[in-house]
Write a structure and sequence with these properties.
Belongs to the CEP76 family. With 659 residues, the chain is α+β, with helices and mostly antiparallel strands. Helix content is 30%, strand content 23%. The chain is built from 16 helices and 25 strands. It has a seven-stranded antiparallel beta sheet, covered by helices on one side.
Amino acid sequence: MSLPPEKASELKQLIHQQLSKMDVHGRIREILAETIREELAPDQQQLSTDDLIKALRRRGIIDDVMKELNFVTDSVDQELPSSPKQPVCFTDKQSTLLKKTNIDPTRRYLYLQVLGGKAFLEHLQEPEPLPGQVCSTFTLCLHFRNQRFRSKPVPCACEPDFHDGFLLEVHRESLGDGTRMADSTTMLSISDPIHMVLIKTDIFGETTLVASYFLEWRSVLGSENGVTNLTVELMGVGTESKVAVGILNIKLEMYPALNQTLSQEVVNTQLALERQKTAEKERLFLVYAKQWWREYLQIRPSHSSRLVKIFAQDENGINRPVCSYVKPLRAGRLLDTPRQAARFVNVLGYERAPVIGGGGKQEQWCTLLAFLCRNKGDCEDHANLLCSLLLGYGLEAFVCVGTKAKGVPHAWVMTCGTDGTITFWESLTGHRYIHKSTNPDESPVAEQPKPLYPYRTIGCVFNHQMFLGNCQPSDSVEICIFDLNDESKWKPMSEEAIKSVCAPGATTSLPPFPPLCASTIDASVTSNEIEMQLRLLVSEHRKDLGLTTVWEDQLSYLLSPALASYEFERTTSISAGNEEFQDAIRRAVPDGHTFKGFPIHFVYRNARRAFATCLRSPFCEEIICCRGDQVRLAVRVRVFTYPESACAVWIMFACECAS
């Protein structure tokens, strides 16, 4: 079989890289020296090739090489549209699974290997999981220059068995000349870090953010052979951001190997200059922010009690300007409309930042990757993501910081229409409210519109380019005038000052925004699984009450349109299809029988937890525990998937029985 020249050169390159990795040349030199010492007779001047081959075979070198270079060909070759090259497969002796990847030899790659973890002392007493036993797991999520990766889940342990490799493309088209392979100097100018987020998933599927780390990868540019090993100490999050949670062993390697490596001194100088430049920009912004705040307090001393949030702490306890948490974010083809984006943000779980002991709310605004990987966050995380998505759709959107009833701090989103319409978006529920300002000077007899929104006060609004403090006499949302261009009502910050620290690439300390990922959940399969589990739970519950259970499959099927209609209404605020559903139910339920139905909505897929919640509703319990003549039960589950494997789960229990 003959290979085309480019295939032959690629094959040679792979073999050469594998031989270099095994240090075959060094081992051959050692064996050659030993053989000359031990086997060369005094009267012999040289060894033959056959003698050398026998010596190498006897010491197992040839067998080792053949094991490493185990090339596999697919029976059907499918070419991916994104790459002109066919996939090449090779096996690694450390892995039992076949690894396959598409490598474009004209591009530069950084191969990041995670070679295990240690000192995760919180799991020191964790017992070894038995085969097939469900246990808590660690998952490592990575983001680098618009590429996202996720490791295989590994059981939580003091020394978690991470063994994953991630092939990161270093040179992207966004740099301009995307056809040329990046050299060392070009890569040294790429300041984007590799953002690593460690997530723990417990046996119930609940996720916890363990650590968030920004890896500076450019040290590999100054290392010999373009390979370096790092020990990364992961720190905790929130109140534990100063406490180490564990260590990861990481190996970085450039593919193809660098023709010319930089000196470590050059790399260190570049990194030091970047840090110095970033520190100076942040210092100047802090000086400006202090001056702005002094001027704001001089307008009215009572402003000191308003929620004007200029800086916020991220999960690592680092203070960042709030404008850096927002950036226009395009969802590609994953979300079609702003209202669908609002629904997506709404189905991401809500969880306040954990705090040890009492003392009120713990502040923690998560970076976007940490929020998406954990799949849940606080109201600020939801508001920042929704504002970013709405900006991506071309709307003039702002995050609002203020309070709800009883003075509870809250964040929500506001959009300003070209006609002056102000719309509030509640990121936790997906609800939208039109704001109509109340005139406080009007006669008390005049009828004032009663606000439907839950917001009471507003201190400031911001997006990626603007920050405005509310300097109206009252900070009440009800009478607030949202003319953001009127500096007598809204005190703006300098857009240049915000740009200096919040614009993309302005400072190396800013985490880049990751792209959204498509859902990995199969909606039909998951719907069926949850439905089967609920049927079993209902049957067991009724059996404990001494009741038999008869399921009516046709009635269950007829509930589907109602669930689809509920989700459509949540997404679009338009109700549709209710007439057909009611007509179908009237036809299905015989005369003299009663029909009862109870729909409920969840954002998680745990059937047992959902069933326990349903039983707490007296209406639902009445259906599940229905007694009477000719009782027929029905249950229908419909899972609607969204990006990042978020989902809306609709469940409807129903029963029919003789009146």
